[in-house]
Each structure stands twice: as C-alpha cells, then as structure tokens.
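Final report, results section. Input specification for complex C-07:
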Amino acid sequence: MAACSIEDVLAKAEREEAEKLKSISVHKELELEFDPGNLFAFDKNPPNTREFRKQNKDEFLRSLARDNTQLLINELWKLPTERVEEVIVAKLPEPTTRLPREKPVPKPRPSTKWEEFAKLKGIQKKKKTNLVWDDVHKEWKRRWGYKRANDDTKEWLIEVPETADPNEDQFSKRIKAKKERVAKNELNRLRNIARGQKIKVPGVGLAPTDQQSKTELGKAIHVAKHSTASVGKFQGNLPKEKVPKNMGKKRKFEPLIGDFSAEKRKQLDLLNIMDSKKPRIDITKAVNKQMREEDRQSGFQKRKSPGKKGRKGNFSGKGKGKGKKGGPGGGSSGGSNKGGPGGGNNRKPRKKQGKR
Amino acid sequence: MHSYGGNVSGRMFDFHVLDMIELGIEKFVSLKDFKNSKFPEGTKPLLIFAGDAFETDNEHKKLKSLLIDFFRGPTVPCVRLAGLEHVLHITALEGKIYLRSYKALLKKSGCRTPRIELEDMGPSFDFTMRRTHLASDDLYKTAHRQPKALKPKKKKNVSHDVFGTKYGRLHMQKQDLAKLQTRKMKGLKKRKGEKAEGEGEEVEAEATTAKKAKTQ
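Structure output:
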C-alpha cells in the first residue's frame, strides 16, 4: 500500500513538473545553434512551407519567432547571474561567431638586435626571480630598479685600487659609469626602433628634426664642423659665417680641494664686503633690467591672446619663444648627449587664423 | 544607396570593400504603422535566423554574417535579463528573406524561465536577394584571422586531464614535521612514576593495544 502511494506521489510530481515546463518547452526537429555572447540563435530546421502558404504569413512567422525566441531565452536563463545594484544581470560568455575584422591583424613587432642574435645562437630566455637576497642589508631586494640589491653606486666606502690615481673620485667614477651604461642602453633602444621603422639614423651627430630653428642649425653646424680628426681646427669658415661666442661651460666652479690661499683670501674679502657701506648691486641697472623684462613679457602676452585684428602673430611669438629657449639649449649642448635629437625645441609653428 | 527600390549593404576590410549585397524590398511596413509602445533605442537585440538556406547557400551564409555584424550592437560582458525586449527574426523562405522585429513580453511560467509572448513592433521587411559582390575565400580567411592576444588566457596552476578532471596545484611552505598536529594516543603519553607501576603499566599497554586494534 505504501509502495503504491509513493509511486502515485512520484507520478503526480512528474506530471506537475511537465505541466510547468510545458509552457516554456518547444519541440524542434533539429536543435538550434546558440551564441549567447551575441544573443544569437540559428534555427536550421527547414520551415514548413505548406503551413506558411495556408496561414496568414505574418501569423506563421510570428509563431515561428515565438518558438525560437523561447528556446533562446531558455538558453540565456541558464547563464550564471549576479545582482548589480538591485538588478539581476546575466554574465555573458565570449561571442563564438567568427566575424571579419575591420582592419588586418597587426604585424608582429620588429625584433631587436639581441633577439636576432639569440635566435641565431639558440639562446633561451631564462626566467629570473624578482627579488634577490642582499647580504649587506640582510633582506630581499629587487634585482634591478629603485633600492636594488648590490647597488655599487650606493656604497659609502670604496677602497682605492692600487693602480688608480689617488686624487680620482671613486664615487663619481661609479656614478658616471652608471650614467654611461644608461645612455648606451637608451641609444641602443632608439637604434632598434629606428631599424624597425626603417628610419635612417646618422652614426654621429644630431638627427635632423623638421623645422629647425636658427640656434639648432647653428648647433648642428658646430657639431659637424668639429667631427673631424683634428676636431675642426683646419676647417675653413663660410664667407659670412660668424664664429659663435660663449661656447663652453657657462659656469665654472672651483674644485673642492684646490688653491688654499685663494680660498682663504676670498673668504676674508667676503667679510670686508659685508662691512663696507657700498651697495652690492647697481640699483639703476637692476631696475632697468626688470622693466625691460616686464615689457617683453607683456608684449608676448599681447601677441599670444587674439588682438583687435584677430590674427595671431606666429612669427614674433615663435621667434621670442625659440629665442628664450635657445639660450640654455645651446649652452648645455656639451653636456648630455641624448638631449640633442628630440630634446627641447619640438614646438611646431602655430598656423591659426582668426576672423578676417 | 538606392537603385529601383533596393538597398546595398556591405563591409570593409583594410580600407577595401570586403563584400556587398543588394537586397530588394518587396514589402515594407514602417514603425509608425504598428501602433504600440516601443522600447528604448540601443537595446541589444536577440537575433534569430531561421531557414536551412542560411546553412546551405553560400550567399545566404554571407548575408547572415553581414546581418549579425550589422545588428548585434556592442559586445557587453553582462546583460540585464529583464531588458531583453528586442527580437529580430529573419527567415529565409521560398527565395525571399523576411525580417520581422518583435517586442518580447516575459510572462510568468511555472518555473524560473519565463514564457515568451511576442508583439509585432515593426519595422518589417520582405527582401529578395539581388546582386552580390563577395570577396574571394582567401580574403575572407585573412579577414577572419584573430591575433593570438584575443585567445583565452591560460590559468596558472590549473590543468585538465584527458577525462576532463580539473587539477589544481597548491604551493606550500616547508613544514616543520616535528610540530605537526597528529592524532594523539592518550595511552602512550609519558607519565610520572612509570618505573614503580610495573604491572599497572603492562595492563595499560594491553588495554591500549586492544583499543588500537578496535579503532583500526
């Protein structure tokens, strides 16, 4: 008896389930192909043309559409859901339909000189750990970068090797060597890029940029002139070429341990100057200089903002701008070797026209 | 582009035309002719294609790809289930292509998944396929190529074997085996005055071995 009732209960439950699912189940000969990522379904079943002709066309299409949509919705309701700000949202998978791209696949990056060499020799990349044990500080430090392990520029005590000059500064020597390595790396990186993009880079000297100013051209001429074996001593001048003055270091600092008597004299003279009543700066000269500077600034501002005519003076503004930047740019040419090519003066000429 | 009542749709690849298909419009019913409420513009539509012509005929296949591309909208990671209202149904039947646009109503059914009722919302088109200008198969292959970056990323420390079982890897630090917590045998604990209780000890030992046998 109990067994019968259990069977009845189960059968009843099954019927109820079937009832529930009847409203959403659809029978199809062939299963549809689904692409939930694109909200796309494809029904391959050949449509019933007899039905189509019998019924009203739209009715037939609508019932077909309803069935297919029901199946697609069933698929979509199977996806994992989450609640985002009181809204139930289903997480879509990646779309599976392959569609053509608009632009072709990007070409692989051109390989660097080292990569080609490694490929040739069969050298594999060895994966290195990020942290290295530093015995000095007794902790794990980066392999390279900020606060790295075994940083020889940060040592506070360096033994002077026997073969070295006793007056040489070992600390600055190490710092210079580091800077040279960095510069060399940068140069090689730029050369790799240039080779990849098939840009020609000169072996020595400055790489030309478009629209060079007078000072840039002057610098280029100077570099080219002095790039001979005799460092430009026997290069003739052009008919109207002006020899640039003020080449060389802008400021000279006394060495730390130099002429002791001169240093002593200077310090004592300082005391005398402080005692004397004469003012240190020539006030009229200073005031005139300040007024000139202010005039120049105001003139520059006026030309920058659109005046009554509405035309921006690109000539004078450009000239002043370049002129101001030209000075320190030219002076530090001797120092860094990477300042040259791209460096300071990358301003394009402004070509704007206001109302006529 | 119009030509005696037809529309040309096409796609570009690498600044050249990839394919173009001309569809002549036999019948057109506009949005205004269907008098019912519409849904907001920009809802991602549910695209459904019906008819075996889309599988067998090459031109229909390309048309299907073109229409998916055209109608699918932006690819989104999640979608609001209640907001799936727009249904675009395209049927290929007897040489014609019927495009119908419906508004889906989600009705209560007995279970979690709702029952769908459709309301014809428009616009509706009856197309015939006219001229086509398709690219060569090689060009299609090139256009469909995907870069490696778009392939799914492999997860570290997770692997699957032939049967589909998923394996994971755990990386543990070195454990001090002397300090491990294991099961304690209370009888084997060292106590004070063991030498004095000679007999007692033996009895205890027997009892504990009997216990051990039981538990094993």
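Residues 6-74+85-147 of chain B form one domain. The longest strand of chain B covers residues 16-29. This concludes the modelling results for the funded period.
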